[in-house]
Amino acid sequence: MKSRRIEPFIDEATIADTVEQLAARIAEDFAGEPLLLLCILSGSFIFTADLARALARHQIEVEVDFMKVSSYEGEESSGTVKVEFDMERSIFQRNVLIVEDIIDTGRTLEHLLRLLQTRQPRELRLCCLLDKPSRRINGLNAHYVGITIDDLFVVGYGLDYMHKLRELPHIGIMSTEE
Ligand code: 5GP
Question: Is 131 a catalytic residue?
Answer without folding.
Answer: no
